[in-house]
UniProtKB/TrEMBL annotation:
InterPro entries reported for this sequence: Beta-barrel_OMP (IPR027385), OMP/PagP_B-barrel (IPR011250)
Species assigned in the record: Gillisia lutea
SUPFAM superfamilies hit by this protein: OMPA-like
Signal recorded as keyword: yes
Record protein name field: Porin family protein
Domain Outer membrane protein beta-barrel per the UniProt entry, residue ranges: 26-191
Alphabetically ordered keywords of this record: Signal
Amino acid sequence: MKLKVVMKSTLSIFFLSIFLMFSGLLYAQEKWNLNFRPAVNFATQDVGDAEIKTGFGFEFTVGYKIVRPLTAYVGWGWNQFTAEESFAGINADIEETGYVFGLQFNLPVKSSKMHYWVSGGGIYNHIETENSSGDLKFNTDHKIGFQIAAGLKFVIAETWRLSPDVRYRSLSTTIKSENIDLELSYLSFGIGLSKAF
């Protein structure tokens, strides 16, 4: 019994040491960043026959600095809109979920803790609709869409950044069971909080 405890303790210390060494290496290079971005979304058109209201959502991304001004990112996001009347019923929720990926170009301002940035990339998302009772009505396949964005980045602590931005996102897909074509496009205003490693 004692041998098992010793073995578990030894393995725990070993893996903790590796994790700390790896974390230290990442911290020293500061090539990675984690970002959380809540946002308010404004649709630029109706979705199917649904006149959708202002929505909200959030996104998590991981970025890697390829060269000094250029960062590649991947992540996952969720966005929700509501519609009083739609193909999914009365007071339906329209949710877009899936993956994001792309490149961000950073433009530092000399003698300042601020950067400008622009980005472009893809989304691989699908749309779900729920009725007012929360029952799933329709679900589409994942499709490729796109997004473009621009924003500012402020250094608020040694490795922490605050980044207000605006994005345009567009996704076209189909509810096969009903033969309904959907196009969801919207402007998104958000504030990201990121940590560099």
